[in-house]
Amino acid sequence: xxxxxxxxxxxxxxxxxxxxxxxxxxxxxxxxxxxxxxxxxxxxxxxxxxxxxxxxxxxxxxxxxxxxxxxxxxxxxxxxxx
Length: 82
Hints:
Layout lengths: L1 H21 L1 H6 L4 E4 L2 E2 L3 H7 L2 E4 L4 E4 L17
């Protein structure tokens, strides 16, 4: 019984570590940010431009920001074919 309980406990700890790496806070710790407007996720420049006041969440703090003029971004790079 003790062996089975120990194995289950270790499995539970492993799953908890995996859960933590998949959470958005781990992504913030890698240098990304989450942008929101009025509590809603902002995923495009057009949404940000329309929103007015933005909230940007970093790993260590949240900041308020106002969008300004947009600039064209480079086209996404595709993978090189072999």
